[in-house]
Design brief:
Elements (H helix, E strand, L loop, with lengths): L5 H20 L5 H7 L4 H8 L6 H11 L3 H5 L5
Length: 79
């Protein structure tokens, strides 16, 4: 797998930060409880919040659990 460029890594970090922000807004102070409650593998979700890459289908599942559309998700935190 080719290494990711700096801009890609920054955007993945932005994605992780946005997921964390929305999770906390939903009242979940702990990512593991959020993941468990929404049938998302806890370790995998933790990696998403840390800015690791994820599949589009996984992002859709998380956004559904957060009750937010793709458009609204990407409206904040991404340049």
């Amino acid at each position: 797998m080719a290494s990711k460029d700096k801009k890609t890594l920054e955007q993945l970090q932005n994605l992780g930060n946005r997921l964390k922000q929305l999770r906390k807004e939903k009242g979940y102070t702990n990512y593991e409880i959020f993941a468990f409650d929404n049938n998302i593998p806890r370790a995998q979700y933790g990696r998403y919040e840390k800015g690791e890459d994820l599949k589009f289908s996984s992002l859709l599942k998380v956004l559904k659990a957060l009750d937010i559309s793709l458009i609204d998700f990407f409206r904040e935190g991404f340049d």
